[in-house]
Task: structure prediction
Amino acid sequence: MPRIAITVDGIKHEEDVEPRLLLVHLLRDRLGRTGTPVGCDTTNCGACTVMLDGRSVKSCSVLAVQADGCDVVTIEGLGANGSLHPMQQAFHEEHALQCGYCTPGMVMAAIDLLRDDPDPSEETIRRGLEGNLCRCTGYCNIVRAVRRGAQEMGQAVRTP
Amino acid sequence: MTELDAGLVGEQIAESGQISEPDGAREIGRARRRKEDRRLLTGHTRWTDNLQQPGMLHVMFVRSPMAHARITRVDVSAARDLPGVVAAFSGRDFADEQGSLPCAWPVSEDIVIPDHPPMAVSQVRYVGEAVACVIATDRYRAADALEAVEVDYEPLPAVMDMNEALAPDSPKVHEAGNKAFSVTITSGDVEAALRDAPVVIDRTYVQQRLIPSAMEPRAVLASTDGDTFTLWSSTQIPHVLRVMLAVTTGIPEHRLRVIAPDVGGGFGSKLQVTAEEVLCLLLTRRLGVPVKWTESRSEGNLTVHHGRDQIQHLTLAAEADGRIRGLRVRLLADMGAYLMLVTPGIPMLGASMFNGIYKMDAYEFGCTGVFTTKMPTDAYRGAGRPEATFAIERIMDELAAELKMDPVEVRRRNWIGHEEFPYTTVSGLTYDSGNYEAATDRALALFGYDKLRAEQADRRDRRDPVQLGIGVSTYTEMCGLAPSRMLGMANYGAGGWEHGSVRMLPTGKVEVITGTSPHGQGHVTAWSQIVADSLGVPFDDVTVLHGDTAIAHKGMDTYGSRSLVIGGVAVLQACEKVKAKARKLAAHLLECSPDDLEFDGGAFTVRGTGSAKTIQELAFAAFTAHDLPEGVEARLDSDATFDPDNYSFPHGTHLCAVEVDTETGQARIRSYVAVDDVGRVVNPLIVRGQVHGGIAQGIAQALFEEAVYDADGNLLTTTMADYLLPSAADLPDFTTDRTETPSTGNPLGVKGVGEAGTIASTPAVVNAVVDALRPYGIDDIRMPCTPERIWRALEGARS
Result:
């Protein structure tokens, strides 16, 4: 079995893994990072989105061996010292979650979206989140939350 | 509370994004951010699949690839020999103990309720039906073992079409035939209404089959210590499930605990007693170790009960001025292969709703439930009411078109006036309250109705390839399921009450226990607001427990827009009882009569003096019990069970503008306005979220979603790539507002909001699509109104 080295939410792990093991199952079943859920088996829903070396990936379509040597950030590693990341806070303020199952992936995808466009329009946000499905909110409040999160994060960048 | 004054709330969200706060210290009406959020936002979740138990094994099911077949052989021996595999069983291995999955709603005397083994023993009747299971040390080994199970089938003919299924020469799904039941309800003389009517509109509408698609796939974990059993399930109904599992498996109810931990959406799909829940319980009993099953999405699309699937034939008779004389409804409702928990009751929930908000003298409803070789249908958001609302709202537009009348005007001429409530409709329901005029006027203003009509006329004149359609839906629905007395009359197998407990803890904090079982609705926040107002305690000092039969010992769970209307009221009534106890204690400690005390701001004050005891002080006094009056126990807590006298009837007006590209057939929603009246609102933020999500699901039925089976009974939409859940890119922003006409049926004045958006939006969208195409002589597009269907209709009209 291949041995991989992987950093997850700041903790280094070395794991022997079957080549077929999916990253999301490594996170959930082996490393106990159950904050990242699985919503489908065809890479459509985006619930399992995490950051892999700083870019969002659907962890159900990455093999654990492909993440060898990589740095993974999940929803559990996003906020610093128990505080919420501005995007998490924005989702709270705008009531952008109901059942919360899509939320970890949605937050991750939203943060990644802002790397390409720190001040996205509604249209850009809707297109940017096309790969993340939500069944509860109708997306209106998610769009508002991403706008709000973008403003907060922009402010944070501008304020030294 | 009887003042039926529809106050405009004025939260025009699309413009400001803000909801105004009510004045003063009252919690009810405040847009409190949810207490539930933090855990969900940081990944500290308790989805059933997250849970681990020492020694836990993983279950997977071998599922039938045939829609209809005899099982001639099942061989699990090769699977048993694989590494990591602990056991493998066929249906026959559990034939003596698995019982039959329950149907709790026999809607007629002569209903056929077929035996429904959780694991098929001798015959399969839909693709996806479980025929065997494997149990292994992890999910990968279990998946390997599935491949090694051999099953031989002798194919039988698939039965896919409801009309064909009812033909005398049709192959039979069950021995007793393909008709599950027939029910007819009449009120007034429909024949007379139809005879010589100046206008008769006759239409057939198809409610396509839908897949509910909660984001969290189902999961079940069962464990036993040899004496007691615990079942964790992604369910909406832990309490109902416990009773049903006890009856089905023979495990005594008092030795079975059911827990619904975090549940990731339901929409009715988790209002069920499933084969997997029964089998996980039986497997843990047989193997003595914890077992967990988590479905894949593809497995879920096949085997989570489906929704809708009706053929609706309506005949509407009207006067020349548009006033309705009467309505006849004939339904065929696809039950699928078996009757599950409330399968036959779903079309019956719409039986009294086809008349909508309109006055008429004659009504006839007939429904036949039909067996086919497909996944059973059951509750899906709205459950019977969206189907009824769609049909009446669609045919009202056809009536308007026939009379060359504005569709809003034809509705005005027929709807119940605000001064006429409470109003007993032709189908026998008594609508509690409403103000259709106010909601419609507000919606028309927000929408810019006249301006859009002018633009539409202009585009029609110019023969613009992109045509504009405007759709109206003035809906009502039946919420707060349900008065137990009425459920009894409908032959439903349970009551409709709800339970709440409130206990003051020694330190003055409040623990609330609710029998409802939230899965995204925000009960913890809303119930905290109700309690904070009633007891005068801080919002943050209230906690709400739910979803575990060992904690919330009594409940009827969450579905049918019932939780606030019944469960919220039960919590309020428990608070009132707590206050009554506290008053006795305060009077004793303050040495006055209970009648001399006034309660305000969380304290009992002796009228005209400054002497007071706070509810927190009284909680501590009850805890220490050093000085209690005669007959007062050492506790400040109480229970209440609320059972309403009537349903509640929210309503509203939804308007949709759709642009239809007549060259490509693409329909795009340009604007959407919803003005809903859900009675008094506890938390406007939560209400708005429910409306948004509901609208999106209704639009999804109108434009995107359909569960498609081929002629052999194979489901073609097993993945989210094939079954089109709308993404953010597929939907517009919604403009929402409210009017507020309190319900007269409960002390909170609330009506329920969980299903309203879904019920209202489907006809609004399809009416808009058809309105755009009417100049081409098109008067219907079957749902979902895909570009292909619209394009084909246009091609047909052109040739």
